[in-house]
Amino acid sequence: MINAEQRNGNLFVQLTGSLCQDKVETLTTTLTDNYSGTGNIFINTEKLTEILPSSAGTLASLLKQSSLPDERIYLIGEMGFRLSKNKTQVITRPSKKDRCAGCTKSHSAQQKITIQN
Question: What is the CATH number of the domain that holds 71?
Fold first, then answer.
């Protein structure tokens, strides 16, 4: 499933379930149809259960063919590392070991951003 919404000038997309080639094609169409030309594109991968082997290459190829700006696309979540190609940046949340001792929740001020180019 793919959900997209505009917030504060940015496009936010939530992916859920398994990511196959058909869903990658739908994702690319969703991005090109909904991106306004300004702001960033955030693709949340935290609810993906699997990424099929051909999906990452297909996404990279389709994004390269599109007019979407590589430097404004961010993948959110650990699955983003498996999906990222080219210059896509990945944002991850801190793991439990990165949280304050004895604290059960993460603090937004302590978010760790990992960028893979």
Answer: 3.30.750.24
